[in-house]
Amino acid sequence: MRDWAVADAKNRFSELITKALEEGPQRVTRRGRRVIVRAEDDAIDAPAPRGRVEYEGHVARPAEGLRVLLIIGGGIAAYKSLELIRLLRQSGVAVRAILTEAGAQFVTPLSVGALSEDKVYGDLFDLTDEAEMGHIELSRSADLVVVAPATADLMAKAANGIANDLASTALLATDKRVLMAPAMNVRMWTHPATQRNLTRLAADGVVMVGPDEGAMACGEFGPGRMAAPAAIRDAIIRLLNNEARPLAGKHALVTAGPTIEPIDPVRFLSNRSSGRQGYAIAAALAAAGARVSLVSGPVALADPPGVTVKRVETALEMLGACEAALPADVFVSVAAVADWRPDRCAEEKIKKGQAAKAIGLTENPDILATLSKPGPNRPGLVIGFAAETEHVEAHARAKIAKKGCDWIVANDVSGDVMGGVENEVLLIRRDGAERWPRMAKEAVAARLADAVAAALTARGGGLTGRARCADGAHAAKPSRRRRWRRRARRSWRSICD
Ligand code: CTP
C-alpha cells in the first residue's frame, strides 16, 4: 500500500472508532481484516490496523446518567470503595455517598467527596442536610443503593429493619434495589447469625457481590474479603441496566407527527397532529435505555434527548425512512399519516382560476400494516395508535386485525387530544384491554415504555425478525440479532484488546 493509502486507512479507522464511541460498541464488528460500524444510515467499514490497538477512552460509557447511593461501612475494605467510586465515575455513573461513623475511621469524607465530586452525607440529624435533601429523598434519588463494604453490623441492621443512623435509615426507606459487597472477618461471615441475615436479605431481593476468599487483614484466611472494585462495578452496571434501563440493547422505531402531502409548491393536505405524544414516547423509550430512531413529520418540537431523528414530509418518505431504520425490536406507529395524497403535485403554484373542480386522490401506503407483515424484518412488538371519534374500542380492535399489529393504543380524538397536552387512552392487546386514566402525554409515554419493557424482557432478549411478538402471534425463531450482538461484542473486545 502506498503511504497516502496507509494514512487514509488510519484516518478512516479512527473516524470509525469515534463513531463507535458515540453509538456503542455493540455496533462495531471486525470481519477478517476489516472493521465494520453499523451507522445510522448505512454500514461503513475500513481496514483494521494490524496488531494490538490502544484507544484512550475506547470503552463506551455504559451507564451514563445513572445514579448510585453508595453506603461506605466501617471496615478496612473501605479503602477499596474509593477505587469503586473512581471506576463508577469513569463509567458515567453519578455517585452520592453516605459515610458511616465507623467508615470515617478508615477513609475521610474529603477523599470520598473529591472522588465522587459530590457532598458526602454522614449524620442522620444534621439539620442542614435535612433541609437540603431529607434522608428519605436521599435514599430514593438514586437508581440503586450500594453498600460497600457491607459490614456484619450493616447487614444485621438491614436484615432486621433497624434504622438508627443515616445508613440504616436510608436502607429502610429506599424503594430501590440494594446491592451489598460484604467484607468482614471469616468467622464473622460464617457465623450462623450473619448467614441467617444473608438468607433474609436475599429473600428481600438484596443482591450480593462476594465476598472473596483469601488472606485477610486480620491475618486469617477464608471467605470475607470484599470483592474487587472492578467486579462490584460490573455487577452495579449490570443491575443498573436491568433496573433503570430495561430496554438497553434494544432498538425502538417510532413515527410521530403528521405527514404533509403537497398539492403544489405552496399548498398541502395534512392534519392537526402536533407530534407531542410520539415525541414523548420516543423520549421515554430512550430513557428506558433503548436506542431510538424517530421518524417525524413536520412538527414544531425539539429533538428528544438521545434520540436519532429523521425528518420527513410525506407518507412515502416516512415509509422509506422506517424501512431503512429496520431491524427494530419494537415499532410504535404514532404518526398521523395522511391517508391520501393528491394524484399529482403541480410543479408551479396553481392560480385561482386554474384550480380543478376536485383534487384527485391516491391512497397512501399503510406504514403500520406494511411493517406488521410477517417476515424476517418484522419488529418483535408492533404497536399502532388508533385515532377515533366514535366507537373507540370496537374500531381499535378492528384495526389490530386489519393491520396485523400486536397492540393498539386507542384514543378518542374528538376532544382536544390532537395538539393538546393530555391524553386518555385504552391499551388493547390481543388478550385484553386496559383503560388508563387521563394523564399528561409524557405520563402515557412512560407507562407505555414500561409495558414495552415488560413485554420485551419477559422473553429475555431481542424479539427482532421472526422472533415471537409479545403476544406470541408470530412464528418463533431464536433472534439472529442476539447472536450478532454477541459476536459483535466479542469482535469489539478483540479490536480493543
Ligand atoms: N397508519 C400508518 N399509515 C397510514 C395510516 C395510518 O402507519 N397510511 C398508522 C397510524 O400511525 C396509527 C394507525 O395506523 O398507528 C391507525 O391510524 P388511524 O389514523 O387511526 O387509522 P387509519 O388507518 O388511517 O384508518 P381510519 O382513518 O379509517 O380510521
Name some characteristics of this structure.
single chain, about 500 residues, alpha/beta, Rossmann fold, eight-stranded mixed β-sheet, six-stranded parallel β-sheet, 16 helices, 25 strands, about 25% strand, elongated, disordered C terminus
Describe what you observe in this structure.
Helices cover 36% and strands 23% of the residues. The model is unreliable at 49-60, 460-481 and 487-497 (pLDDT under 50). Bound molecules: cytidine-5'-triphosphate. Cytidine-5'-triphosphate (CTP) binds at residues 255, 315, 333, 335-337, 339, 364, 366-368, 384-387, 399.
- CATH class of the largest domain equals Alpha Beta
Helix fraction, binned, reads: 25-40%
For the sheet with most strands, the description reads:
8 strands, mixed
* Overall residue-averaged pLDDT value: 82
Oligomer: single chain
Could you say which structural class the secondary elements and strand pairing correspond to? Answer: alpha/beta
CATH superfamily placement of the largest domain: CoaB-like
Question: What form results from the Cα inertia axes?
Answer: elongated
CATH architecture of the largest domain: 3-Layer(aba) Sandwich
What is the topological layout?
Blueprint: H1 3-23, E1 28-31, E2 34-38, E3 43-47, E4 67-72, H2 78-90, E5 94-99, H3 109-116, E6 120-121, H4 127-132, H5 135-140, E7 144-150, H6 152-160, H7 166-173, E8 177-182, H8 186-190, H9 192-203, E9 207-208, E10 212-215, E11 221-225, H10 229-243, E12 251-256, E13 261-264, E14 267-269, H11 276-287, E15 291-296, E16 307-311, H12 315-325, E17 330-333, E18 340-342, E19 361-363, H13 367-372, E20 381-388, H14 392-403, E21 407-412, E22 422-423, E23 425-429, E24 432-435, E25 439-440, H15 441-458, H16 480-496
Parallel strand pairs: 4-5, 4-7, 5-6, 7-8, 8-9, 12-15, 12-17, 15-16, 17-20, 20-21
Antiparallel strand pairs: 1-2, 2-3, 10-11, 13-14, 18-19, 21-23, 22-25, 23-24
